Amino acid sequence: MKNHLKxxxxxxxxxKEMILYLQYQVLEEKMQILENMKCFMGKLKTWKKPENxxxxxxxxxxxxxxxxx
Length: 69
Description:
Number of helices: 2
Structural class: mainly alpha
Order of helices and strands: HH
Largest sheet: none
Number of strands: 0
Shape: rod-shaped
Strand content: under 5%
Distance between the termini: 45 Å
Number of domains: 1
Low-confidence stretches: none
Mean pLDDT: 73
Helix content: over 70%
Protein backbone atom coordinates (compact mmCIF):
# COMPACT_ATOMS: atom_id res chain seq x y z
CA MET A 1 0.00 0.00 0.00
CA LYS A 2 2.85 2.38 0.87
CA ASN A 3 4.57 1.75 -2.46
CA HIS A 4 1.31 2.28 -4.28
CA LEU A 5 0.90 5.69 -2.60
CA LYS A 6 4.48 6.63 -3.50
CA UNK A 7 3.78 5.82 -7.16
CA UNK A 8 0.58 7.90 -7.12
CA UNK A 9 2.39 10.87 -5.53
CA UNK A 10 5.27 10.55 -8.00
CA UNK A 11 2.85 10.44 -10.96
CA UNK A 12 1.02 13.52 -9.68
CA UNK A 13 4.34 15.37 -9.52
CA UNK A 14 5.12 14.35 -13.09
CA UNK A 15 1.69 15.56 -14.16
CA LYS A 16 2.23 18.92 -12.44
CA GLU A 17 5.63 19.26 -14.11
CA MET A 18 4.10 18.45 -17.50
CA ILE A 19 1.30 20.99 -16.98
CA LEU A 20 3.81 23.67 -15.97
CA TYR A 21 5.97 22.86 -19.00
CA LEU A 22 2.98 23.09 -21.36
CA GLN A 23 1.86 26.37 -19.78
CA TYR A 24 5.38 27.71 -20.26
CA GLN A 25 5.38 26.63 -23.92
CA VAL A 26 2.03 28.37 -24.54
CA LEU A 27 3.29 31.52 -22.81
CA GLU A 28 6.47 31.46 -24.88
CA GLU A 29 4.44 31.15 -28.12
CA LYS A 30 2.18 34.04 -27.07
CA MET A 31 5.25 36.18 -26.31
CA GLN A 32 6.69 35.35 -29.74
CA ILE A 33 3.40 36.34 -31.43
CA LEU A 34 3.36 39.62 -29.47
CA GLU A 35 6.97 40.28 -30.46
CA ASN A 36 6.11 39.62 -34.13
CA MET A 37 3.12 41.95 -33.91
CA LYS A 38 5.26 44.64 -32.25
CA CYS A 39 7.81 44.26 -35.05
CA PHE A 40 5.00 44.37 -37.62
CA MET A 41 3.51 47.52 -36.07
CA GLY A 42 6.95 49.14 -36.11
CA LYS A 43 7.30 48.37 -39.82
CA LEU A 44 3.75 49.57 -40.42
CA LYS A 45 4.76 53.11 -39.45
CA THR A 46 7.63 53.16 -41.97
CA TRP A 47 5.78 51.79 -45.01
CA LYS A 48 4.57 54.37 -47.50
CA LYS A 49 2.48 52.38 -49.98
CA PRO A 50 -0.66 50.47 -48.92
CA GLU A 51 0.22 47.52 -51.17
CA ASN A 52 3.55 47.12 -49.33
CA UNK A 53 1.71 47.02 -46.00
CA UNK A 54 -0.72 44.40 -47.33
CA UNK A 55 2.11 42.24 -48.69
CA UNK A 56 4.04 42.29 -45.39
CA UNK A 57 0.88 41.65 -43.39
CA UNK A 58 0.15 38.55 -45.50
CA UNK A 59 3.74 37.38 -45.05
CA UNK A 60 3.43 37.80 -41.27
CA UNK A 61 0.20 35.78 -41.15
CA UNK A 62 1.72 33.06 -43.33
CA UNK A 63 4.74 32.87 -41.01
CA UNK A 64 2.48 32.54 -37.95
CA UNK A 65 0.43 29.72 -39.50
CA UNK A 66 3.56 27.83 -40.52
CA UNK A 67 5.03 28.15 -37.01
CA UNK A 68 1.79 26.75 -35.49
CA UNK A 69 1.69 23.74 -37.82
